[in-house]
Amino acid sequence: MRSVKLFLLWIGCWQCMSVTAQEKPAIDASVYGTWPTIQFPAISNDGKYAKYVIDNRPLGSKTLVIQSTDAKWKMELPGLSNVSFSPNSRLAVFPRSNDSLAVLTLDTHTVEYIPAVSSFQLPEKGNWWVHHLNSAGKVLVARNLKTGKERRYQQVNRYWLSNNGGTLVLQIPSLNNNSLQQLIYITLESGEKRTIWEGTEIGSVIFGDQDRLAFVGEQNQKSMTLRSIWYFKPELEKALSVVPELVESAGRKFNIETVNQFNNSGDRLFITLRENKPFLPPTRPKPGAAKLTVWSYNDTVLQSSQRLGKGSIAMFGQIKKQYLAAIDLEKKTVIRLEQEPGEISFSYGYYFLTRKIRPDGDDFEDYWNSAVRQPLSLISARDGNRINIDQWRNNMATPSPEGNYLLYFDDAQKNFYTWEIATGIAHNITGNIHTSWIRPNENSMNAFPDAPAGWLEKDKAIILYDANDIWKVDPTGKLPPINLTNGYGRKQGIVFRLAMKMNVKGQVYSVMPDNGKLLLNAFNRETKENGFYSIQLNSRADPERLTMGPYIYQVLEQNPDGIEPVKARNAEMYLVQRMAADEFPNWYTTRDFKTFTPLTGLHPEKAVNWMTTELHTWKDKNGKTVQGVLYKPENFDSTRKYPVIFHYYTEWSAKVHAYIEPDYSNGKLNIPWYVSNGYLVFSPDIRSGIGEPGESALNVVVSAATYLSTKPYVNSKKMGLQGHSYGGFETDYIITHSNLFAAACSASGVADVVSYYGELWGSGVSRQTFIEGYGMKMGGTLWEKPELYINNSPLYRANHVTTPLLMFHNTIDGAVPFSQAIEFYQAMRRLGKKAWLLEYEEGNHYVEGRSAEDFSIRMSQFFDHYLKDKPAPRWMTRGIPATLRGIDDGLDIDKEIKTPGKGLVIDNDK
């Protein structure tokens, strides 16, 4: 009943009810699971209409909203979520639960219901759409969006509508032989029909540009069943058989598994081949054989990974081995591009790069494991020719859209290079640019620049990101580079990135015209303001500021947040999501990114004592500037002294304006709950140096605590710590090196880096690479730096702990083994320290459901006792015997024992 009342209170808030912060209730568990969210926003092609779905409105359900972007018309449809706008932006089409199709005329409440519809399709553009009736006649109806005129086709088994909405292909029974199927090619504008193929079976039908068509077809010829790839284009009378389904390459036979896509120019058809081998049932173990696993030093992949089926190695017997290939449609030949399964990433251009790691290898081991490496090659889809480029193994490399260049970053030289595919000449294209391509404070051993923004049309230039600005660079290195943002980003501390991707189908990068305007996402690293600027590609002026403010539209720094704007296909109208720490992430419309008109207006935070945020800056013990976010309750009283919980991981200050939904703690602290209930929460940025993950955390958090202790509203004797995963390791390290904190909660953390180094991930992969490099950044192996590993292991300094510790860990944790928690818990118990370990059997690295609810309650009771002096619950004072496991939760307050007592250690043994 309380959740229903609270929901009604939120509805009142959405109607702009005025409630002061002092009157608002604190967040409690009744709000969890009831908070609304906005999903699936979309805009019509003309920009005049938008749709979105509100989840949890009404409670436990959802509502589809379709409305005009000028806010003059709106329609709400409870219980629905799926809707499509017609290409001409006049209709909204959505299925009903009773297999009927609703066709809503936009800007009205006129709805046409079409019964017994099994499926429908609206193209991306064009004048026609289709729906298939679930009737005896299998009628397919094609309807003209302009005139309403219909064409009906009988006995349609399957259909395919081109993306441009101009061509319809039908599969129907043959008029002369019901055992055969025909493909009918229809030009919808004229109504012209052509039978382009007849056979027994049809599959994998795909469209290409200019209404090209490819499919797999089966025919009976001379008492034989023959399957092949067929190709059709409007200039032909009938579809042509291109290649048989069974092809031969290098003396091996392959079946065509799937037809994937035409390339951009339409002269190549990409397919997937499967080796034609008889199925071999899994080999059974010999009766009475020892259950033995032999781990060899020369195993390419660990036995644990092999058992779990990593790459092309399966747990039982064989798996299908697939190979990418191309069909030359003119010569009708198959060009096998992959020599091994999974060699290359898919693309639709003319060139491909092989992966630098064997498909059955562990790519994290490539810097030391010679067995997982394979030659890096550039493969041509024109003829299958391979060019060895193995010297660029450690550099990211991608072909240009037109296939003229290979772009890569030389990590040793810290510059971008192009390699002309036709001549084999390499160019250092950024050698004369004095800037850093690596983001600041990136201390990873494998630091790389951001992926390039894209290319100009016809490979005229590359658009590159440095740490702040955007550059236009000639791929030959002959023309001088142009700083498109005029150095403004570096001077103002702003990071510029493209606000929206402009991808051509199949390309890695955006492809953009060589003139015109670009919309930029902007993020100020110092103030954390976010917004939009614009630049002219052929201008050298400063970017034009459109909007900047204390919001998140889309932040691409540190931990990315927000959503990319959504543009109408045929109009300068956009949907933009905007949020602030105290402002629900609602959607707005804009034409110029200067003026924003609200599209949605949800504000559930107004019904409760919500939170505010402040960005703080101070110096650590080394004199370096550090930033962090202070979360305060909405009803903050500067005359009070508040307890503080420090919550951290790496760098979270970019989220100072992020809206955090209240929920049960899954391992991490749920900030809105604690702030609403009388705590301050502080999240400092932790930048770990190579070889000093623990010391980096200690330095920042202790300096943050020292800094906050000077604030009159902070109770310096009631400061706590909470971190999950890497943050759990940081928590354990801090309490073994500092006695500043009154309580600490370590969730799923590493206690002993030495033993953790030899453990396996849940996938069976070794953790060594994670610890040496990009994760804990130890900077070397255990045998190279044994003291460093020991010094960064909290376990070996457990005797220095004075802070009461609550630990949480799941029994089955694939990221950090439960043994890490047991090691530290046993150390604390043996040393007589105050420590509790909450072991949950459901969940992996996080908890959810009832376990999350239970953990949230116990963590709040723990902090309430040590940071607010509230009475302790029985599970803290007396524990819960194993015989009462699952029977007595011990959550009630102990009326006899006010606070947990000393440990088990005999005084003489201390």
Would you kindly provide a brief summary of this structure?
This protein is mainly beta. Helices cover 12% and strands 33% of the residues.
3D structure, described in words:
The model is unreliable at about 1-20 and about 310-320 (pLDDT under 50). The chain is mostly beta strands and about 900 residues long. The protein is globular. The strands form 13 sheets. It has an 8-stranded mixed sheet with strand order 48-49-51-50-52-53-54-55, with helices on both faces. Strands 21-22-23-24-25 form a 5-stranded antiparallel sheet, with no helix packed on it. Strands 36-35-34-33-38 form a 5-stranded mixed sheet, with no helix packed on it. Helix 5 (about 695-710) packs across helix 6 (about 725-735). About 10% of the residues lie in helices and about 35% in strands. The chain has 12 helices and 55 strands. Strand 1 and strand 2 (about 50-55) form a beta hairpin.
Largest sheet, spatial ordering of strands: 48-49-51-50-52-53-54-55
**Class based on secondary structure composition and strand pairing:** mainly beta
**Count of individual helical segments:** 12
Q: Mean pLDDT score, rounded?
A: 88
End-to-end separation in angstroms reads 53 Å
* Number of extended strands: 55
**Roughly what fraction of the amino acids lie in strands?**
25-35%
The major β-sheet equals:
8 strands, mixed
Radius of gyration, Cα only, in angstroms? 32 Å
Helix content: 10-25%
Uncertain regions spanning at least 5 consecutive residues:
1-19, 310-319
